[in-house]
Amino acid sequence: MAEPARPAILVIDASDFFRRAICETLAAVGHVCRAAADVEAAAADLADPDVGLVILDLEAAGSATIEAIRAVRCEGAPTRAIVISSQAGQELVLAALRAGASDYLAKPLHEEELRLSVERALGGWRADREIAELRDRVGAESRASDADLELARDLCEAVVSPGDPEALPAALLARVAERVSAVGAALYLAEPGRGSFVREAVWEAGALVDRPWLPAGRGLSGAAASTGVFVASADPAADPRFDAEVDRPEEGASGPFLCLPLRFRHRTVGLVRLFLAEGAAPSLRTAEVAAAALSAALRSVLLYRSLGSSIDEVARIRRESAARPVPAAPRPSPRAG
Question: Which parts of 28-123 are beta strand (E)?
């Protein structure tokens, strides 16, 4: 649930007069207040995350008030508590402060003192919320980073594992597609001298079928190829570079989209296109890691093919040389007289 711009303030006091006076004083400066006569009546509000501050009368419920403070301050929760009283003993006030109350105010309350105490308490509430959100963000980034490292490691292991190098593009594509929960994926290689891209591998488990080839310089795919920068879009059709004849799959509708350029010696030698499920958010970090790892893997495949072509060419030359007839050695001319 999204936090409100200003959290609600819950006032618990047995006195109808004080409940109304506190709520009216705080409402005059823009606060939203709720009120209850005792802790039991306020149980639902005490559990509501929209409540950021509780103002409790120590004389209303005694030990129940202390337990309520402990409950709202448990496990570092951001909800703050202010205790008020007209004649509570020092030990009870200290017990409330030890339980987590941020302030104590004596009745009758001074309006300015009340407002200042509330602002201090809500300042602490905001600080706790920001710290919690930052912690969650750092944790999410850390988990995403771990997943991206695992993906890079997975791709590298696939490259060095024994097996048919010709099957490697399809294997790498499948691993990336599964990691990003794609619904369709294809890997393309550049056609030498033509600038277009021909589909080299397709993810067999995908529900969408991508195009057999991609023209040069058109659409989001052409932008990724020409700039060497990946494209990640939750709504590709809204991008002015979008070209429906290129950027949509051959079969199925186009949703969130990732296009990764595969680079070798400062040139784009391939593309990977990943179509994600509707509503999915393309991860820029994952796109960056996947593009780098796939580029490194594709270099190995291309070098293997280049080496294989060179070996085949040498073997062809040798075969042709072996089949060519060897010219007969010239006979020595007879000696004169």
Answer: 33-36, 51-57, 80-85, 103-106
